[in-house]
Design brief:
The protein is mainly alpha-helical. 55% of the residues lie in helices and 0% in strands. The protein has two helices and no strands. Helix 1 crosses helix 2.
Length: 67
């Protein structure tokens, strides 16, 4: 499909994304606390969001030139 966006995730990033989405869902559904991520998790999820933004045609900032 021409509008599909496909990103490949390593296992650690996939786990981080799963946990983040699960905890947000539990927070919305039942008010459960969201565990702060570790520095490594923040780094991996930040890179994932950057890559997803680029796949959507967005730039990280007005100075984003690393595409």
């Amino acid at each position: 499909m021409p509008d599909d966006i496909v990103l490949r995730l390593d296992h650690a990033t996939a786990e981080d994304l799963y946990v983040a989405l699960y905890e947000v869902g539990e927070h919305i559904a039942a008010g459960a606390a969201i565990t702060p991520p570790t520095a490594e998790e923040v780094e991996r999820l930040g890179a994932l969001l950057r890559d997803l933004g680029h796949a959507l045609g967005r730039r990280c900032s007005p100075y984003c030139h690393h595409l």
